[in-house]
Design a protein that fits this description.
There is one protein chain. This protein has about 210 residues and is of the alpha/beta class. It has seven helices and seven strands; from the N terminus they run ααββααββαβααββ. It has helices at about 1-20, 25-30, 65-70, 75, 115-125, 145-160, 170-175; strands at about 35-40, 55-60, 85, 100-105, 125-135, 180-185, 195-205. Strands 3-2-1-4-5-7-6 form a seven-stranded mixed beta sheet, sandwiched between helices. α5 (about 115-125) links the parallel β4 and β5 (about 125-135). The longest helix is centred in the first third of the chain and has 17 residues, at about 1-20. It is globular and about 45 Å long. The chain starts with a helix and ends with a strand.
Length: about 210
């Protein structure tokens, strides 16, 4: 049953929640400035497809779930940019060093078991000066919310495929050597604060 949930039901639940219309303006913001060959981490059901700028020449999708990849089929068919499926594990990318101009991660670093390893791999495959565009949820700025996040995280991880509530994307980027060039932190209006403390920005590979 657990295997059926993770393989088939969970990708559909993620597609539904991440396809929320309220996130569309944020996806447009995080995709602004993408150019050239782009590596997209946690491609999912393709919710960013309509927001790629015209300067993007190709998207290589890192998506381990076959179900999520199938769910993205209609969106991929209507895309104006070539999209190909790349490696299945962001922690061990098969893509060659310095082969991408930019990378994109939206609501993905919360779930990858070794997020630091994935960021190191992104840094490896980005060209010098390449940018990582990110939109992630994580540790809240308010201690009261943080306390609830710490209590709720075990259940969150169990129900949401390993999704963490207490990771802080800025700290992970700093530790991996990325230089944060833009950062906006805020709560998503109308959503529970324990799961909607967002960080949106860009970071540059040294």
């Amino acid at each position: 049953m657990d295997n059926l949930y993770v393989k088939h039901l969970l990708p559909r639940l993620v597609a539904f929640s991440c396809g929320n219309a309220s996130l569309s303006p944020l996806r447009a913001r995080v995709c602004t400035g993408l150019r050239g060959r782009v590596l997209e981490l946690g491609f999912g059901s393709g919710t960013n497809i309509g927001h790629y700028p015209g300067m993007v020449s190709e998207v290589v999708a890192i998506e381990p779930s076959d179900t999520a990849w199938r769910l993205s089929g209609k969106a991929r068919a209507s895309a104006t940019v070539p999209i190909v499926r790349g490696s299945l594990d962001a922690q061990r990318l098969d893509e060659p060093e310095a082969s991408f101009d930019a990378a994109l991660s939206t609501f993905t670093l919360c779930t990858i078991p070794d997020a630091a390893g994935a960021l190191a791999e992104i840094a490896r495959v980005l060209k010098p000066g390449g940018t990582l565009h990110f939109l992630e949820h994580g540790l809240a700025p308010d201690e009261k919310v943080r306390r609830f996040q710490r209590r709720a995280e075990p259940l969150q991880k169990m129900l949401a495929g390993g999704c963490h509530l207490t990771r802080r994307v800025e700290t992970m980027l700093d530790a991996t050597g990325f230089v944060i060039t833009e950062l906006d932190t805020f709560y998503l209006p109308g959503a529970p604060r324990f799961e909607s403390a967002l960080s949106l920005g860009t970071a540059t590979r040294p």
